[in-house]
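Blinded run. Sample ID left blank on purpose so nobody reads anything into the name before looking at the predicted structure. Input follows.
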Amino acid sequence: MHAGGTAGGVFILGNGKLEILSEKVQLHIQEDAGFEKLNGAYLHSVALDEDGNLYFGSGKNIYSFNPSELGRPVPGISLYQVNVNLEPVDIHLSKFNSDQNHISFYFTGIWHQNPKALSFRYRLNDEEYTSTQAGEAIFSNLAAGTYTFEVQSGTMGMFYESNTVKHTFTIAKPIYQQVWFIAFVIALIGCTTALFIHFRIKRLTQKRQVEKEQLQIQLTNLRMQVNPHFLFNSFNTLMNLIETKSEQAADYLQRISDFYRKMLDNDQKQVVTLKAELENLQAYIYLQQKRFGDAIQVEIDLSQEISDSKIPVLTLQLLAENAIKHNIATRSSPLKIYFHEKEKFLCVENRIIPKVQKEPGTGMGLANIKNRYKALFNRKIIVSAEDGIFIVKLPIIQS
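Blinded prediction complete.
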């Protein structure tokens, strides 16, 4: 045997064959390949180009040689086992559940010329190749999707596309990622939300209905306080007329009858326009002036613009009644009641001249008005006494 070294590789000659090691490529060339019996003494150099052509000299000649011309076989490869979650499965299985995501492939190759030089490279889909000589590839915690595993065999760092084994498999999506499950969850959320909204609306409606009924009861009770209050004072006035001015008592009684007939027309109303309320006030003042004459004086200075504003029924009458009940009214010192508007309030003013002996009453006048404004409009009235003037300010409700 003879070995020689050149710039292109190493030659080993003996036993009727030429073995060339060049650029990690190992070739075995025998005499029947078309060459005469070679003498190693005449081998001088070897080179391998990019196309795989091998060039070497022998004697006075330069030879070119392509390994494919020999029909040299490439290393064989076989995929012989697939493990899923560390358990062997049928190698032809291609569909796995979402929790079957730990996949192992086992493969082997056949290369009789130089078994120790046999190596593999593998990859999953289009990832970079991983080289190994162990004959196994392990992939853990794979996400749902479709994968193609491919492995190639080779020698001395050269691999062959024609010598590739592929295995395509699919890992199913977990149930919570399935289209039908997502649609079901969306539908369930939608139905739950709709039911919640339905019951919420129903509950709010019931609550508002209860509140409305409670408010109606409260307003009815407040309105019922007005009628007995006025009736009490009217009868009190009638008694005084019968005792002092009996000739006017019949006319006064007729006026009371007309006044109450008008009140009955508004019996179901909680709120009236200011224009309608002023008509009620004037009818009431007429009855009071029948009793007190010029001792009661009323001045009304309200603009036409607020005539359609809203006011609880009989509010102005109650304020006038309170003023008359609590203050002295004589012809020499008349009680003046002044109705005017100021800064979005309807103001009712009277001079404070308190009576020594107060007339009987229910004591519900101002409290009744406060409660009705709160219940109907959620607004407050303002009551004050300044410089001997008693003032009640009613919010002007335009809508």
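Unblinding after everyone has recorded impressions. The CA atoms of residues 78 and 108 lie 5 Å apart.
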